[in-house]
Amino acid sequence: MLDNFFRTQLESLAKENRLRQLPQSVHGIDFCSNDYLGLARTQQLFDDIQEKVGALQFKQNGATGSRLLSGNSNYTTDIEEKLSRIFNSESSLIFNSGYSANLAVLSSIPQRGDTIIYDELAHTCIKDGARLSLAHRHSFKHNDLADLERKLINSKGRKFIAIESIYSMDGDQCPLKEVVTLAKRYHAFIILDEAHSTGIMGTKGSGMASWLEIENQIDIRVYTFGKAMGIHGACVAGSSQLIQFLINYARPFIYTTALPPHSMVAIECAFAFLEKNIHLQKKLSHKIDLFNKYTLGLRNKMMSHTSIQSVIIPGNDNVKKAAARLQARNFDVRPILSPTVAADSERIRICLHTYNEDQHIIDLASQLIELSLSSHSAMH
Ligand SMILES: Cc1ncc(COP(=O)(O)O)c(C=O)c1O
């Protein structure tokens, strides 16, 4: 019976050409992963982690429980102290993933009668967290300060603005300084998700707010480690009171098994490795500049100065075909379909990495231009 329900639902997705399937093992040149700085594939970091895990002689394979029960250790709290120094915060708290960190913050802090105002392009975990909260919630137009101001004027209770430093689909950046000014004017609090800037911006990889030297004007900061840091996990950084509050009220923190000790070692080693190899940020910038230079004539590319680049190809069917064509030429790129992005803004999302060879970037750019020209002439 239940299988009939599943089948009907899946068939309707397939009919609309938006059935999701796990991809086959990855082939081709990586223009898809979030391993922007190549840390996930760095032998030295791999060796550092192995060595430290061996040296610490953990007697446990797993954390064995929630941080509030058997899952805490002095080592974990030491790592949190190190993260606080990196992110220049009074305190920090590790979460199992960026998804659960955002869910925790949004669902526990804004209360009934408060208002959450989030950028319309915010990640699903911000929206899901807001849905779990009892606060009112509204979106504002992407990066549109005038719309944000209108929403601030019309909102009730304490106001929380939820934004990202770099948006995961368009790759553009939020006007953080301007948002801080607005937040001050309307006595609003800022929740900043630094998922795609952790590692790639800021001395020590400490993200956009710290790069702009305004980290202490942001009330709640979320950093994730599964992207440019090449490992896994996340943390929230802010005041000691914020962290104590989350320990007491954030259900995605309280009711889950903590990350294993090996993950703590990976977090420590990844940040230590990045500090010694901070030149990787410059190397990535060079790759981004190169891609932008060779795609200058590409009208359907979104303006971006980050490692996330998008080429719009409207229609799930069209974008799937375009991605297949590039994959056949050995470029590992993926189509992003609606409803993950708005209808008519379906796209090929390209992630640039330090390890992408210049020639491969140039070749991909010329393939994208060819693709765009052929789809343009097919329409006329
Ligand atoms: C903006 C943003 N926030 C949070 C997350 C979730 O982070 P994690 O993958 O660590 O759960 C993602 C991941 O896709 C993201 O793009």
Concise account of the structure shown:
With 380 residues, this protein is α/β, with parallel strands linked by helices.
Give an overview of the whole structure:
- By secondary structure, this protein is an alpha/beta fold.
- It has 2 domains: 21-41 and 279-379, Aspartate Aminotransferase, domain 1, CATH 3.90.1150; 58-276, Aspartate Aminotransferase, domain 2 (3-Layer(aba) Sandwich).
- It has helices at 2-15, 43-56, 74-87, 98-108, 124-132, 145-153, 176-185, 207-211, 240-249, 251-254, 261-276, 279-294, 316-328, 358-379; strands spanning 29-30, 91-95, 115-119, 136-140, 159-164, 188-193, 220-224, 234-238, 308-312, 331-332, 334-336, 347-351.
- Bound molecules: pyridoxal-5'-phosphate (PLP).
- Residues 97-99, 102, 123, 125, 164, 168, 193, 195-196, 224, 226, 234 line the site of pyridoxal-5'-phosphate (PLP).
Q: Approximately how much beta-strand content do the residues carry?
A: 5-15%
Under the CATH scheme, which class of the largest domain? Alpha Beta
Tell me the CATH superfamily of the largest domain: Type I PLP-dependent aspartate aminotransferase-like (Major domain)
Write the H/E string, N to C.
Answer: HEHHEHEHEHEHEHEEHHHHEHEEEH
Helix vs. strand class: alpha/beta
CATH architectural type of the largest domain: 3-Layer(aba) Sandwich
Helix content: 40-55%
List keywords for this structure.
alpha/beta; Aspartate Aminotransferase, domain 2; seven-stranded mixed β-sheet; 380 residues; 14% strand; three-stranded antiparallel β-sheet; Aspartate Aminotransferase, domain 1; 2 domains; binds pyridoxal-5'-phosphate
